[in-house]
Amino acid sequence: MSGHGVALRVVACGKTFADGTRALAPVTLDVGRGETAVLLGPSGCGKTTLLRIIAGLETPDPGGRVLFGDSDVTGVPIERRNVGMVFQSYALFPNMNVADNIGYGLKVRGVGEAERKARVAALVALTGIEGLERRRIDQLSGGQRQRVALARAVAVQPSVLLLDEPLTALDAALRERLRGELNRLLRTLGITTIYVTHDQAEAMALGDRIVVMREGAIAQIGTPRAVYFAPENRFVAEFVGAANLIEAACNGATLALPGGTLPVADGALHGPATAMIRPEAIKIVPAENASLIGLVDSVSFLGDRQRVLISAAATKVITADVPNAIALAAGDRVGLSVEPAAIRLLPGDTT
Amino acid sequence: MTKPTFMRLCLLPLAVVVAAFFVLPMARLVLIGATGRHGIAAYAAIVIEPRYAASLLDTVLLALATTVTTLLIATVSGLFLQRRRFPGRALLVAMLTLPLAFPGVVIGFLIILLAGRQGLLGDVTLALFGHKEVLAYSLAGLFLGYLYFSIPRVILTIMAAAEKLDPSLEEAARTLGAGAWAIHRDIILPALAPALIASGAIVFATAMGAFGTAFTLATDIDVLPMLIYTEFTLSANIATAAALSVGLGLVTWAILALARIYGGNTVAANG
Ligand SMILES: Nc1ncnc2c1ncn2[C@@H]1O[C@H](COP(=O)(O)OP(=O)(O)OP(=O)(O)O)[C@@H](O)[C@H]1O
Ligand SMILES: [Mg+2]
What we know:
By secondary structure, chain A is α+β, with helices and mostly antiparallel strands. Chain A has helices at residues 47-55, 98-108, 113-126, 142-155, 172-189, 200-206, 224-229, 234-239, and strands spanning 8-16, 22-31, 36-40, 65-68, 71-72, 83-86, 160-164, 192-197, 209-214, 217-222, 244-250, 254-257, 260-263, 271-277, 282-285, 292-301, 305-311, 318-323, 333-338, 344-346. Chain A is 24% helix and 33% strand.
């Protein structure tokens, strides 16, 4: 059961609620057939609103259109859009058991009993909830509920699968495990998927592409690598992963900092700039032959690595993640080196 | 004082109240029912004697009709009122509590104004069909009266229950392709079932035992509470009145017990 997806196009869909709240500026988004796009952004940035517009649970402001493949579904009511949706609360039907929940979409579509049973059994096996078919919903754990909700959503072989923070309600360890399972399942199913989360690790792990949202607008669309290594603005740099954002003067080849200089690669820029450097891109080197010198402020041992805060090198404290074997102590004078390619100069200070 | 003794002392007031207002009168009622000319057979008379049996049947049918009609109208209206926002809604909802404030006598009076000999219904039918329709002094009048005070009460219960429904359940059903009809059948009504059973039981019990309205409309109506009244006051047939009372109590109690079994614990709370 793979490859039922269609390409999804969202064209200039904005949303202003009846009370005047502008939840979404007109956004345009293309998601390829079978692709998983993750909507990532802080709380209240309009992720759910965009998802509900795609589902047909909200209508976009005039001018906005939603297309599934070649067909314009903007005016098509939700029950005929053929979307699968997993709600944050799961919204499982409490008056039905697990099997009836999963088979409900097939039942209202008039799929015969025998076929329905077979399809439900296949989904039960696929999501690993064998033996729970007759259970009531209130007899399931959070993780089991999440699987039932997913099985129910994909049972109808939807054109588009929509998931609204499906793992947020679970504890951290379970979340990590289910994330892996979900990833495998989405690849197996090959359905076009929109996945909403405010957890950037989840977004990286699951998304073919990440749509970073901010205050009702799209801040950047790109692959997880592009969003991480080449953020287009300050907001994306800070929201996705940890980042040092360093204000410095650039002369085209190097950045001039209080503690020395750093060579840059894309040095077309002259004048004041904001340089984005990921903590793990910073190497600690002997101070003698380093171009940039700093003082160790504090060291936190994190097990697989250690996080070092360094002052005096730049106008503000720099965070560096370095291998756990290097011996460092507060007050040490250290040299810093960064691959020129790992320094990203952000345009001006627009955001 | 040991703990168990103390607990027993605390139980004392409850025991006194139960004994004084419940066990003793009930026991006496049951006994009186068997002291008439026919002894214990007075109880059999409820179902054997045609007049009593007919009255029992009428009362049960009236209560059933009231319950079913009330639930139908109140569910539809309650769901509508809970979901739609329209001008005047708040006033309408506030007015729904009005009938709760009236005693049965006043409701009987209102029914006479509506469908009595000088009533609105009579005037309208006279103008339209040339004959005066008078419903007030029959079972139909009583039926209207009971609807009048049970519908608003059940609407309020349904609205409260619908308020607590998780809207995402309905949305989930819609994404799965369910139309309005399927959503109501599979999602909303099952979720409202406890409230429906509970308020249905209360409506039934009230319609079985209400007296004031029947007494005001009088003449033509032979429902059980009226029968008990006439046997007791006019015929001084105390034994029969007691037997009928016990019969009425049993039927009503059985319905409430069934509702409690199927509807969970909400029955008493919604009273
Ligand atoms: N029905 C509504 N009426 C008015 N405003 C709304 C409504 N639904 C959402 N909003 C507002 O729209 C904005 C975006 O909401 P949305 O639910 O899309 O955010 P979100 O990104 O999903 O946030 P979260 O991560 O907290 O779920 C918020 O400011 C919210 O208050
Ligand atoms: Mg949300």
